[in-house]
Please model this.
Amino acid sequence: MPATVILQGRSSKRTPVSEIMTSPVRTVSPEHSVETCMHLMTEHRIRQLPVVAASGVVGVVSTGDLVKTIIAKQAHVIGRLPTYIAGAYPS
Model:
């Protein structure tokens, strides 16, 4: 049986989503970049973005998803720096 959560005097079982969600709902498409999503989330102070395509909602991107992607990109760049610094440029 799912637990009832009470936060700020609201019961999770009795609180309509419309009372706690951001309105209007901000969405992105699968073509939006990580940077664009991060900008929207920062500007509107939201932690999740529904991803919408012609068929409807195809997923949800969270702040954590974006941070993991940015960290992975940075790790890739950092991993290539020794080669770049040594002058062994890719051909």
In short: The CA atoms of residues 46 and 52 lie 17 Å apart. The mean pLDDT is 86. The two ends are 59 Å apart (CA to CA). Strands lie at 6-7, 10-11, 48-53, 56-62.
